[in-house]
Amino acid sequence: MDTPTDFLFLNERISTNFNPFYEGEYLVIQTYPREIGLRISKRDFDYQSAKNYCELENMAHDYTSFGVRVFHEQKLWDIDFCGHPSNISKQQDWKISPEYLSAHSDSETNE
To answer: Is 13 exposed, middle or buried (0-12, 13-18, 19+ CB in 10 A)?
Structure first.
């Protein structure tokens, strides 16, 4: 049975304390083949440095590709050619299952 402590990660104020990334941080991640978890190759606050590293990684690997994402508003975002967030990336570090979220708001499961 779930306890109130189990649902603390649904509280945004609490869950952001455990997030390992910082606002505006650029992440070079493996985009192919997709892993179950987020595989990060480099973290940097300088867009040009992250972009250069990503290009080198893509040249060095034949069967793996990498991409640059930026951490913005507690999510990973794709970036435009200037390094600004353009749209939310399909790769995210973690997600809350919709069934788990709905169980939290169900009055019959909360005691």
So the answer is: exposed
Q: Residues 51-80: pLDDT tens digits?
A: 999 999 999 998 999 999 999 988 899 999
Name the region of 74 (left: φ>0; alpha: ψ -120 to 50; beta: rest).
Answer: left
Tens-place pLDDT, residues 1-56: 567 666 665 665 555 555 678 899 999 999 888 776 788 899 999 999 999 999 99
Domain limits, the chain: 21-105
pTM, entire model: 0.67
